[in-house]
Amino acid sequence: MRAVLPSLGKGAPEGGRAHAFDRWLYRGKRANRLARLINAVSGRLAAAGIGPPQLVMLEVTGRRTGKKISFPVVVVDHRGQRYLVSMLGDETNWVRNVRAADGRAVLRRGHRAHIHLAEVAPGQRPAILRRYLDCSPGARSHIPVGRGAPLEEFDRIAAQYPVFQVTAPGAPIRAG
Question: What is the crossing angle of helices 16-25 and 33-47, to 10°?
Answer without folding.
Answer: 100
